[in-house]
Design goal:
305 residues; 0% strand; Tetracycline Repressor, domain 2; globular; mainly alpha
Length: 305
């Protein structure tokens, strides 16, 4: 089946798969960003970190799989909701003008129905959790609903995204332990700073279009100091994660487990070309590997504590 290039957003990774879908289904696939799995990975990792750092990655591996399914479904639902709210703004930005709602390939009622279906998948994951973890997960919905409006209110919508995309850590820990622990809070805080850093890299792609559309972002706020700002966020993330590890295992050797992910983040910042959208996208996507390296560090510390 021939693929219509205009139906694939510019930063799509799954052009081949999206192009093979029936034309009637393709816009829904793209609306949920299933062609760009990086968002699901980034939503998944904080919950997996919490499970691993709590020492339950081996005996609760099935819960990690449920978290993976939930990340795919809820990230998709979040993207649909975001596009419903932002459909008028998306028409003003070159990179987003071809999205299914902005371009008119999907109607508003159909988008709401698709959002409901994805929400039902998320509900199936929710019932796998105990009461505290489930209540914590539900508590995130207000922050999720508010996120699309943050770019109109604050120059730092990336900070709000950090709160939302890191929420899995607050769910994962009580899901395997039945409660919260001191190590969880710096783990969560570190994830928030990590998200601010990588989403600022992502926002570098849209600085000019965002300025024309009146959309606020940390990339626009930082301007020429974007590299320094990202470096500070990543440094704070490593510091918070080191504090989390120290709370679990107060030894320098435990903190050394963070060295691979720290070096990866240094690589992201050191070579960043803020004027090259392709470079920004590549380094943003590389955070799936940063998440994996952090997971391995949590696994080592959690299993040896």
């Amino acid at each position: 089946m021939a693929m219509e290039v205009e139906e694939i957003v510019p930063d799509s990774e799954r052009r081949g798969l999206a192009g093979r879908l029936p034309p009637g289904l393709r816009p829904y696939w793209l609306l949920a960003r299933f062609d760009r799995p990086i968002g699901s990975w980034l939503l998944f990792w904080p919950g997996a970190w919490a499970i691993a750092l709590a020492g339950h990655a081996a005996d609760r591996w099935e819960l990690i799989l449920w978290f993976a399914l939930g990340a795919v479904a809820m990230r998709g639902a979040g993207c649909v909701y975001n596009d419903i709210v932002d459909r008028d703004l998306d028409r003003k930005v070159a990179r987003t003008a071809s999205r299914p709602l902005a371009s008119g390939r999907i109607g508003l009622k159909a988008a709401w129905a698709w959002l409901l279906l994805l929400g039902l998948v998320g509900l199936a994951v929710l019932v796998q959790l105990d009461r505290l973890a489930a209540v914590t997960a539900i508590a995130s919905l207000g922050a999720v609903a508010a996120y699309p409006f943050m770019k109109r209110i604050t120059w730092w919508p990336q900070a709000w995204l950090g709160l939302v995309f890191s929420w899995g850590a607050l769910v994962g820990w009580p899901a395997v332990t039945g409660g919260f622990a001191p190590a969880l809070w710096p783990l969560y805080a570190g994830s928030v700073f990590w998200v601010i850093g990588y989403d600022t890299i992502y926002a570098l792609q849209d600085i000019e279009d965002d300025a024309l559309a009146g959309v606020k972002s940390s990339a626009r706020a930082l301007g020429a100091r974007a590299r320094i700002g990202i470096a500070v966020c990543y440094a704070l993330a490593i510091a918070c994660w080191a504090a989390a590890f120290w709370s679990i295992r107060p030894q320098l050797l435990a903190s050394a487990a963070l060295l691979p992910v720290a070096l990866h983040l240094v690589w992201q910042v050191a070579g960043l070309d803020r004027g090259d959208p392709a470079d920004a996208l590549m380094r943003f996507r590389a955070n799936r590997f940063a998440g994996l390296l952090m997971f391995l560090a949590c696994l080592v510390v959690g299993q040896t504590a």
